């Protein structure tokens, strides 16, 4: 059992995978959550173990309460009591105007991006809180620059879900500040991962990078570095922060 136990939701690819790898190097035992791509999750776990770190892969759809409860029981048994959570699992959808969107799309967008984060945070607080016999901890939520840009003509629903994550971060940070738990969010801008292909636009970073004042997309590792700092004791007085990682986008 380790005293630094971290769950990274959506840890199999992109920003989550970069965070899991970096966290393991910083001494965290890491639970790498995924929902569909077990091969990608296994590869992250294999790389961490090859570097001498501790990691397990855990399957769960973060929007499904029963699956999340089972995932946490598995982590309790295999790694010990959680002290860190990165609420990273998230999805976009095809670019559409609001007038063309379906209710099913909105439900999926909010179920995964918002309810999923609430569910995983609830279970984390139950384990971390000094009021529940825990030793405290840190939660980092993945918001997005979309929360302040609104993502018109692409995915206003995604932007609204990420705004909910901002409010969630502020409220939860205040609520658990006396329980030894810090809660922060990062707002990545245009980051080079497979999320853009899943929204039907694999070239999105290349096509939009001219809009970024730094004139380039960011890497998953650049976001992971900020997440790791927020998780660490170096950020011991930082809570309720929404940290931009967007090249000034
Ligand atoms: P990505 O490359 O598409 O990876 C998404 C990850 O989330 C995968 O590990 C995937 O698992 C997992 N996932 C998706 N739905 C899930 C569910 N229902 N339950 C559990 N896991 C689920 O995404 P990314 O670009 O790294 O994005 C990570 C986070 O950063 C997201 O919250 C995203 O909104 C946010 N963000 C990204 C950008 C960007 O430009 N990339 C910008 C701002 C914010 P499988 O491998 O099993 O599919």
Secondary-structure map:
Layout: E1 5-8, H1 14-25, E2 29-34, H2 38-50, E3 55-59, H3 65-78, E4 84-87, H4 103-128, E5 137-142, H5 146-149, H6 156-176, E6 181-188, H7 195-198, H8 204-208, H9 220-231, E7 242-245
Parallel strand pairs: 1-2, 1-4, 2-3, 4-5, 5-6, 6-7
Helix pairs in contact: 1-2, 1-9, 3-4, 4-6
Bound molecules: NADP nicotinamide-adenine-dinucleotide phosphate.
Number of strands: 7
Biggest sheet strand order reads 3-2-1-4-5-6-7
How would the global form be characterised?
A: globular
CA gyration radius, whole angstroms: 17 Å
Instruction: Characterize the largest beta sheet: strand count, sense, and whether it forms a barrel.
Output: 7 strands, parallel
Structural class: alpha/beta
Unique bound compounds: NADP nicotinamide-adenine-dinucleotide phosphate
CATH superfamily: NAD(P)-binding Rossmann-like Domain
Low-confidence stretches: none
CATH architecture: 3-Layer(aba) Sandwich
Please work out how many helical segments DSSP would assign: 9
CATH class: Alpha Beta
Total domain count? 1
Q: Fraction of residues in helices?
A: 40-55%
- Percentage of β-strand residues: 5-15%
Query: Mean of the pLDDT scores?
Result: 98
Terminal CA distance reads 41 Å
CATH topology: Rossmann fold
Compressed to H and E, one letter per element, the order equals EHEHEHEHEHHEHHHE
